[in-house]
Amino acid sequence: MSALILALIAGAVVGLALGSLGGGGSVLAVPALIYLLGFTPAAATTASLIIVTATSLTALYAHARTGNVRWKAGALFAAAGLLPAAAAGAAASRLPQPVLTAAFAAIAVLAAVKMLRPSRTATGPAAGEARPARAAGTGAGLGALTGLLGVGGGFLTVPALVTVLAFEMQAAAGTSLLVISANSLASLATRGATTADVSWAVIAPFTGAAMLGAWDGKRLAAKVTGTLLQRTFAVVLLTVAAFMLVDALT
């Protein structure tokens, strides 16, 4: 199968994940870039940020049209992660590739566990109100994760918004895309010199398919239960994580 077809298929899956779940695209994009398209881990994390930034902005627009984005709380959460994302992005190129691969696999396992746990639905007048200290601490940690591993962090942002800020699931998914977009842009800015090393002949169709998939994912989320989507995605994540851990240890 040609690289172009693989890029289009992988891009569509990434877009579906981001559009329907408000995260998870990057934990699929990085393994796809490494194992299907032959990128090195360092190049894959940079390419993933390009893909995730463009796709998240597209999905953010789709969710904003239906009122699923809490702009004030999301901006606070995202702002706390900007500097950590930039700093970690600058440090990522200095780490050995097996370390990056193993760390990414561990994060994928954590994401799967988060998605397999039942979501807590927000209730009461406090739902969606920002708790500045907790939001800032969580946002900073996710920002560092974005910069280091080239992930948007949405697969952890959604559970964090539900548990820390008491968002309902749909608002958490939409607001997560605002956080992902901000963190990815901050991290990508520190990798400007390395973007010339990625293959644009692969990244362009991958990104285009992901952006189209994001719109389909938004429509899918309205038709399929969130629990089914999360469980299916969790199984995929565990499979990817197992493969990457074996590769890192051999």
From TrEMBL:
The chain crosses the membrane at residues 39-61, 73-92, 98-116, 137-158, 164-186, 198-215, 227-246. It is found in: Cell membrane; Membrane. This is Probable membrane transporter protein. Belongs to the 4-toluene sulfonate uptake permease (TSUP) (TC 2.A.102) family. InterPro entries: TM_pro_TauE-like (IPR002781), TSUP/Inactive_protease-like (IPR051598). It is a multi-pass membrane protein. It comes from the Bacteria. Keywords: Cell membrane, Membrane, Transmembrane, Transmembrane helix.
